[in-house]
Amino acid sequence: MPERHPADPAFAIAPADAAALGPAGTDALVDELMALYAAAQEAAAGTDNDPRWAMGVHPSRAMLADAIAGGGLIAAREGGRAERLAGALILNGECAPGYEAVPWGVDAIAGEVAVVHLLAVRPDLRGRGLMRALMGAAAQAARARGCRVIRLDTLVGNVGAQRAYERLGLACRGAHRLAYDANYDNPAEPNFVLYEWEL
């Protein structure tokens, strides 16, 4: 189980509030998120930490707007609400086909499972514990929804992310084949490594 450390006080982390943002604020946040994900992808491209995101497809503006509307977008800001976006993730119950075949350690029904997607930290802020703080915020939000476990996946070649999740104490459930809509151009069997955090 990951250690629970308080978030760095330099960062304000909270779920995005669609009602408070309104349409214009939501559009502005989506712009910021797309820039964050593009910067993270550019910095990691070709490394052992490459998420291989296809900007405009995964993530897409519609995907991010839906996450905000559904209360599943958790955002971190440096220095408080008015400052630049520092990191983000999506937390929902959406599992890719193939999750059902994984030998999970926690026996949980669908409503008890939260899934983390698109976790990103601004490249210039890496090494400051923001990934840990974002995952802590995700755990708090998942518990508030009555979830018993968080699950996530990463490409088999994304060993940088795998090392990071293992340093956080997430349990590795092995490599498996998942069928995402996005084409990762990866014929490997299996193609994703799965992780689990019992809450």
TrEMBL record:
Which Gene3D superfamilies does this UniProt record tie to the protein? Answer: 3.40.630.30
Q: Which PROSITE patterns match?
A: GNAT
Q: Which domain of life is it from?
A: Bacteria
Cited CDD domains:
NAT_SF (cd04301)
Question: Which residue range or ranges hold the N-acetyltransferase domain?
Answer: 31-199
Family matches, as InterPro entries: Acyl_CoA_acyltransferase, GNAT_dom, YpeA/RimI_acetyltransf
Recorded protein name is GNAT family N-acetyltransferase
Q: Which organism is it from?
A: Adlercreutzia faecimuris
